[in-house]
Amino acid sequence: MLKVEQLHAGYGSLEVLHGISFEVPQGAIVAILGSNGAGKTTLMRALSGLIPIKSGSVELAGKPLGRLSAERRLREGLALVPEGRDLFGSLTVRENLLMGAYTRHSHAEIEHDIERMLERFPRLKTRLHAHAASLSGGEGQMLAIGRALMSHPRLLLLDEPSHGLAPIIVETVFEVIEQLNREEGLTIVLVEQNAHQALDVAHSAYILQGGSIVLNGEATTLTANSAVQELYMGG
Ligand code: ATP
Prior knowledge:
Rossmann fold; six-stranded mixed β-sheet; binds adenosine-5'-triphosphate
């Protein structure tokens, strides 16, 4: 579904990603793990077209994304749930969901999808007309995921979905991620510092260190790897 080869990207003259290559099979959850400053958010931004790629290639379902804008990438089926969620705080929950569907046209289909989102995220139903700024961290993360799903993505990029959430809420968020994959076959790339949870739901994972992939493998193999345990799972 996604093929990334020798991706170099960064900010101005600062190169943060030094030739990243990885693949995401259709229907898989792939985790990209790394500590603070490893380049995880930069990778998400480069994949979703928010910063330019200096060199290398990104293909979605066989189609090169090249220098396509973020909006064109969204239309191609690549949606990002950004770090910190980036909700429209002064808009309501419903309006945020509608914003997620801005590339689509059928009013009836959009309304139908809002209903589906509210079934999947019942908390949002009770908060439908509340401003997004008033949501709790967990509700906000659900809304950010719901908003991204409203674009009908083929591939969902999640940038640190556990960030800033209480452990019990993190569990719920990861359950949702697993359900979306299992029940709807959604292909997911998950960027996380929280290696425990990420390796629990992912099929395979890549370890990003200083802007390079230093290790990759099946999630179960990496979970058993002593270096991974020591560096990313608190021993
Ligand atoms: P975190 O978990 O802290 O978000 P990360 O793995 O997502 O870490 P990035 O945010 O991708 O890491 O940052 C990688 C490097 O790029 C860091 O050295 C950071 O200082 C730098 N960087 C990030 N954003 C910018 C920016 N807008 N301009 C310049 N440098 C940046």
